[in-house]
Amino acid sequence: MTLELSSLQATIDSALAETPPGRCVWVALSGGLDSALLLTLAADACRRHPRPLRALHVHHGLQAAGDGFERHCRRLCSRLGVPLFVERVAVDAAAGRGLEGEAREARYAAFVRRVAAGETLWLAQHRDDQAETFLLAALRGAGSRGLAAMPPMRDLDGRRLVRPLLDAPRAALEAEAGSLALAWVEDPSNADTAMDRNFLRHRALPLLAERWPDAAEALARSAALAGEADGLLEEFAAEDLARLGGDPARLSCEALRGLSLPRRRLLIRHCLEREGLPRPPAARLSTLLEQLEARRDAEVRVVWESAEARVWRGALYLLAPAASLPTAWRADWDGRAPLSTPLGVLTRGLLREDREPVRLTLVPRLGGERLRLAGRGRRDLKRLLQEWGLPPWERAGLIVAWHGDDVVAVGRPSGWLACAEGWRRG
Q: Which H or E run includes 299?
């Protein structure tokens, strides 16, 4: 489907009408044709349908031309009467995602810093960009989530990211920009075919279009269908999770083994997303699934970027790596005032039942501690933790409160797990 030139402004007007009333609309402005046109059309729409409009330019600092991009954005915003905000970011080209991936992460982090929760940010990607993204995902062996490419709208930490031009072909944007006598800047790096996306744009897609003139449209349509399929799979995974107890952080290994292998993979990816954790590489996910067969008394750990999975006592736990207290940490405490610890602020007090003032020493759990419990006498803390079913990885973050030579409580910044006889939680 090719949009008529006159329909581009109508598309932007419709997108504006769908934003929450009274909320600010932002446009991510690089200075190139696509974003310059989007801002120009947005400014026209906001003049006719009054709405706060701002532009956001991210300066990546990767090339000498970057300062020129910023100057052009300032001139365009001055002419349109749109406030411009510039975010300067540092991109580590040597990091694990590669130059393009790290630049994208830095850009999205800048969006979150500047755009307030509840506000809308418009991005200028179009149908040809969608076709490129679909091909990149397919060449990387992506599943339905990757093949869905870029959604027309998604949430980013409470901000609405919208791509109002996603159905429009690049040719339509070029013609509209020409009719408006619009000026823009060309990023020299866009011609570098050593970059995957540029290779597809300048070499692969033109060749495909020679044989299949509607190739970009067809690829974008496939991305939309993959998006629908991915949505259905998410519903399916949510139903499986509900049947398995509804806790995305803890799944029964036995119940998981009752699912087919594809459903196990789907459910684990769904749970990771629910917990805000990254998905593991395919090989690491396969390793994780193999560990579901481990003995009940085995302690299994599979680690990937910013996340880990553990199998313990017949359950699969999905979590961020557990933090532990430095072994040399210690703090004196009166049992009443909030206390800062390396793992957070301790806000729950600790009092003697006779209300006498106390001077406590807080240290990490080192092993060998014993706790006197009412009606049970002195008990080894290690056995008590096992009895309470506290997973081993959580024990490294425990705080032990001493009163003189006696352990009087054990817990975490979020609260005390147990108090000794004669003591209680404040």
A: none
Which CATH architecture is the domain 5-223 placed in? 3-Layer(aba) Sandwich (3.40)
- Tens-digit pLDDT profile for the chain (426 aa)? 344 436 899 999 999 999 888 889 999 999 999 999 999 999 999 999 999 999 999 988 777 778 899 999 999 999 999 999 999 988 776 666 667 778 888 899 999 999 999 999 999 999 999 999 999 999 988 888 899 999 999 999 999 999 999 999 999 999 999 999 999 998 888 888 888 889 999 999 999 999 999 999 999 999 999 999 999 999 999 999 999 999 999 999 999 999 999 999 999 999 999 999 998 888 889 988 888 887 766 778 899 888 999 998 889 999 998 888 888 899 999 988 788 998 889 888 888 888 888 899 999 988 888 988 888 888 888 888 888 888 888 887 899 999 999 998 998 888 888 898 888 887
Alpha carbon distance 302, 219 (integer Å): 36
Q: Which residues contact 32 (CB under 8 A, 6 or more apart)?
A: 124, 184, 185, 186, 187, 190
> Would you kindly state where each structural domain of the chain is located, as residue ranges?
5-223, 244-319, 331-425
Q: Is the pTM of this model over 0.85?
A: no
Cβ contacts of 129 within 8 Å, gap of 6 or more: 150, 166, 170
- Quickly name the fold that domain 244-319 has: 3.30.465
